Recover the amino acids of this structure.
């Protein structure tokens, strides 16, 4: 019902009232969306039952009677019956009637309408397809929530009136469906692959087994896998008969694709090609997980929806323990990228099984690299060499990961095939011209196709890149790395000068793979040079624990009275240790113990004790690139410090997964902290007082803006809050630190994760 109490429709007429029609009728009745609901079906019993269930006000045996004066007509019939029904109702339609249907194929419904109305289709004709169902049918099987959280596809035609489309969107949204509009042809093609082919395969398998002599035994011993796979073969044969014939062309092409793929499986099993078989199975499993994630995140990508939150309650008495945080994100990304283009096998241990690094892993699987794992942080990559990557079948989805997108921009600019890279809501807002520009100077054909030099990034296959020298305008390890990686394939030398030192994992790891990379100290940063045309040789990579993840625990311990925490085997590459230096300058009790080298990277155990009141400082600008990801956590430390903390020279924070200066300032203010964001930093008035351990933060509501580090930083604030803090949009924490809540609880934080 609309705000002024006028229902959305005056009279709705259903032609056919099975599972789908009766479910929609339930929604219309429950939400008072129509003044009157009527239906026509051949079965008098269905009409009587529908009336008794309160789904319709009147039933008719003929469609022509039902549609009179109706402003919405829903054809809820088998698709093959559409033409006949339209023929019958044509003379009785109101001029402004909206006509829609619920069939699984759309091309033939449009054709049926053209056969009846000619090329001038009624303005109100808008075909539709709710992607929901069940193996049960009939008016009694209908459910009011059948469409909830399901997709409904509308396929408006050129002739369709936008008002009619809008009203149908409103109708389906009342059923809690997610409405998508697309082209008729696209609909039929997509559905042929994702719905019609799986149904055909299920019918086919059951039919194949049922025809065997020993069928009873087979069905008796069939396990859960068979039950899951064959469930849809119990669907209505008449309906599927109609669909298979109605969408014949698209289905036959999907079947051909299936046969080809099955043939490939047959071949590798026949030849016992174990690597290829593992590669195909691993790719399929990963693709399934990846799609699952993408599907679960569709609302996030499209409307920035929030699906998870953290609530941290006051009262944590301690923040202590001995444990290690997961693997380093930057190193994990690079281990896959370099292992993929190396010759031979690369074994990785300590790999971060977070969504960002998994996006990189999936991208290389999509480009034909056989990768085993990850399993307990172990990954084995069967490198394909410098010229072995293959064109991916579709766009590479990089999720939330700027590192994947920027480094791959460099690598893919040098490949002979075309690629497109996309990302989630946060990545889609991040600047990509910073990497595209220098790559173009090298000869790359790369475009940032988003509105403001943002993703999607589209690369046209090119060969013959030329080495360049590039003075980086900003201190960015991602841009530096992207250029150097393109340089691996370029003619001559490629060199990059950085304005200040930035993380050097690319340089170190290329050397570990046997590639010669020179680093020369300059006045401020370094100049890094490599020659194109060499090769990488597979190796073993041990990924250290991520200092960026450890930072939340370091700050947590530093602001807690009774903390005593040891974080084991943390990477302390000198280009990453700004957070330790800054916390020390603020007076935190931190020691770096057992320094050692693992897999070419320095690591150490970090011991932090609470109980010291931190002091506000002017954060040293030379530490900014070395602590670039840790500032959100450091702002929490600053709020707990005594006196003012000033940060300058950190404008890069505005273009991270969110605008970290603004988003942190908003959150701090919401929790009762005075602060002033500036163009390149922030001024925070700390509330700490020497020797006092009263709460620093009020309770409150925080928006993470799809930024994992914002979500984790405000979780840490919960250690010094007076009332609960709720952080909305914490699903992205899984990009870098999937075990964050588990470890935070272990240390003593009162944190709860819930789905919303
Ligand atoms: C990264 C570099 C940094 C950092 C990011 C990871 C890398 O980004 O913020 O989390 O792995 O090279 P910028 O290069 O944009 O500073």
């Amino acid at each position: 019902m609309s705000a002024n109490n006028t229902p959305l429709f005056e009279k709705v007429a259903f032609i056919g009232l099975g599972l789908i029609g009766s479910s929609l009728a339930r929604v219309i009745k429950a939400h008072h969306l129509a003044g009157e609901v009527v239906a026509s079906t051949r079965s008098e019993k269905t009409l009587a039952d529908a009336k008794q269930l309160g789904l319709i006000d009147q039933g008719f045996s003929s469609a022509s009677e039902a549609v009179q004066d109706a402003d919405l007509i829903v054809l809820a019939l088998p698709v093959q019956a559409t033409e006949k029904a339209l023929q019958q109702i044509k003379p009785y339609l109101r001029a402004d009637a909206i006509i829609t249907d619920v069939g699984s194929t759309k091309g033939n419904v449009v054709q049926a309408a053209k056969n009846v109305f000619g090329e001038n289709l009624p303005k109100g004709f808008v075909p539709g397809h709710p992607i929901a169902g069940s193996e049960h049918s009939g008016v009694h099987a209908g459910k009011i929530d059948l469409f909830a959280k399901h997709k409904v596809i509308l396929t408006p035609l050129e002739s369709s009136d936008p008002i009619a489309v809008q009203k149908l969107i409103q109708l389906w949204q009342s059923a809690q469906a997610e409405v998508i509009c697309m082209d008729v042809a696209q609909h039929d093609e997509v559905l042929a692959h994702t719905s019609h082919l799986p149904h055909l395969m299920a019918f086919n398998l059951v039919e194949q087994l049922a025809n065997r002599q020993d069928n009873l035994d087979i069905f008796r011993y069939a396990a859960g896998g068979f039950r899951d796979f064959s469930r849809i073969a119990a669907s209505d044969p008449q309906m599927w008969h109609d669909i298979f014939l109605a969408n014949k062309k698209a289905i036959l092409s999907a079947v051909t694709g299936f046969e080809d793929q099955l043939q490939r499986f047959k071949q590798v099993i026949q030849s016992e090609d174990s690597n290829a078989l593992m590669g195909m199975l691993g790719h399929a499993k990963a693709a399934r997980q990846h799609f699952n994630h993408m599907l679960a995140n569709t609302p996030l990508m499209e409307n920035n929806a929030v699906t998870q939150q953290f609530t941290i309650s006051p009262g944590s008495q301690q923040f202590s323990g001995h444990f290690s945080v997961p693997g380093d994100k930057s190193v994990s990304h690079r281990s896959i990228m370099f292992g993929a283009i190396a010759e031979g096998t690369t074994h990785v241990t300590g790999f971060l099984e977070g969504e960002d690094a998994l996006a990189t892993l999936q991208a290389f699987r999509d480009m034909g690299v056989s990768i085993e794992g990850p399993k307990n942080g172990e990954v084995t990559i069967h490198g394909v060499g410098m010229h072995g990557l293959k064109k991916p079948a579709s766009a590479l989805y990089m999720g939330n990961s700027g590192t994947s997108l920027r480094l791959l921009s460099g690598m893919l600019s040098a490949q002979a095939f075309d690629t497109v890279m996309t990302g989630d809501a946060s990545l889609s807002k991040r600047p990509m011209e910073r990497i595209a520009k220098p790559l173009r100077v090298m000869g790359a054909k790369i475009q940032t196709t988003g509105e403001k030099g943002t993703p999607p990034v589209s690369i046209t296959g090119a060969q013959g890149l030329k080495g360049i020298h590039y003075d980086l305008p900003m201190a960015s390890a991602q841009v530096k790395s992207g250029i150097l990686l393109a340089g691996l394939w370029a003619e001559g030398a490629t060199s990059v000068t950085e304005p200040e030192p930035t993380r050097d994992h690319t340089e170190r790891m290329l050397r570990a793979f046997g590639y010669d990379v020179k680093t020369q100290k300059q006045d401020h940063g370094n100049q890094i040079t490599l020659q194109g045309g060499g090769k990488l040789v597979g190796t073993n990579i041990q990924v250290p624990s991520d200092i960026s993840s450890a930072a939340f625990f370091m700050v947590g311990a530093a602001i807690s009275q009774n903390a005593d925490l040891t974080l084991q085997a943390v990477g302390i590459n000198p280009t990453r240790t700004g957070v330790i230096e800054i916390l020390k300058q603020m007076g935190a009790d931190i020691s770096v113990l057992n320094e050692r080298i693992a897999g070419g990277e320095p690591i150490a155990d970090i011991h932090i004790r609470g109980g010291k009141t931190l002091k506000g400082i002017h954060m040293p600008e030379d530490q900014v690139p070395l602590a670039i990801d840790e500032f959100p956590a450091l702002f929490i430390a600053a709020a707990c410090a005594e006196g003012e903390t000033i940060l300058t020279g950190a404008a890069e924070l505005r273009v991270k997964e969110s605008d970290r200066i603004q988003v942190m300032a908003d959150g701090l203010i919401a929790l009762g902290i005075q602060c002033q964001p500036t163009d390149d930093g922030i001024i925070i008035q700390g509330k700490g007082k020497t020797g006092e351990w009263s709460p620093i933060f009020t309770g409150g509501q925080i928006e993470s803006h799809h930024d994992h580090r914002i979500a984790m930083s405000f979780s840490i604030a919960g250690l010094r809050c007076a009332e609960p803090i709720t952080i909305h949009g914490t699903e992205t924490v899984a990009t870098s630190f999937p075990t964050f809540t588990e470890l935070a609880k272990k240390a003593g934080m009162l944190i709860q994760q819930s789905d919303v």
Summary: Confidence is low (pLDDT under 50) at residues 297-303. The chain is about 40% helix and 20% strand. The domain at 329-542 is CATH 3.65.10.10 (UDP-n-acetylglucosamine1-carboxyvinyl-transferase; Chain).
